Amino acid sequence: TPGGFLVVATDTAHRHVESLLRRGIEKEAPSGCAFATDVTGAYAQINLQGPKSRQLLSALTSVDVSDSAFPFRAARYIDIGCARVLATRITYVGELGYELFVPVETAVHVYDAITSAAEESGHELVHAGLKALGSLRMEKGYRDYGHDMDNLDTLLEVGLGFTADFEKPGGFIGMEATLAQKAAGGPARRLVQVALDDPEPLLYHGEVIYRDGVIVGDIRAASYGHTLGRAVGLAMVDRGDPDAASNAAPLPAAWVKSGKWEVDVAGQRFSASASLRPMLDPKNEKIKL
Prior knowledge:
This protein is of the alpha+beta class. It contains seven helices and ten strands. The protein has helices at residues 14-28, 53-58, 107-121, 130-140, 175-183, 244-247, 253-257, and strands at 43-49, 75-80, 83-88, 97-103, 190-196, 208-211, 214-225, 230-237, 261-265, 268-275. The strands form two sheets. It has a six-stranded antiparallel beta barrel with strand order 5-8-7-6-9-10. A four-stranded antiparallel beta sheet has the order 1-4-3-2.
């Protein structure tokens, strides 16, 4: 809506985000010209994800959902059956997809419309839960605030510097620190994607990571990547140098690309690869179909 925003937070950060917004409003807009209202209970979220999600969605609505009319990261109100739904073209699984925010009173109606349309059109609709989501997002290296990153990490350390608008009037919380880290040549530690070379072992979290025989970090979150065909996780790593000055030096991308990487799984070291870019579809070609 004009002048309004819908902020969507992960369940683990729900109250954190709400408190941050309310405190910011109290500080920056004490006159009451801005408000934050928790509308979690007003909406159900239904996700349509996968290469054929546009075909299915187009069969459900009168709105044009073609790539030109509904580009990646766009948000539109669309009709599905008798419901008015906020559709966002975004994904957390690494495929073309849409997140649908449905008023709770019409949630079952919309769900029934989706499943009926899929059956009638011959689309193979599969119900997927959080474990599937966790596996898919891990292959793309998608971050989860409160799990593999938190408020002790900086935007540059977790690879999310591209989300910040450094030209924003008034700036944003932490902008000065981020710019200082950027001016210093970058962060001294980085969140990287790590995948085992062996398809058999599994990763969970907490596994110790070695680079050239030196402990440089541990796995913060992991799952099995069924498309990659091996276990994959996210880890915050640094040089592992006992010298504090050396360990505080900027960590270049070349450092991540080089060296011998290993992960300790239940006391046994397995060779691995590390990357700052997503190992699956790094150019986002699947997402931007």
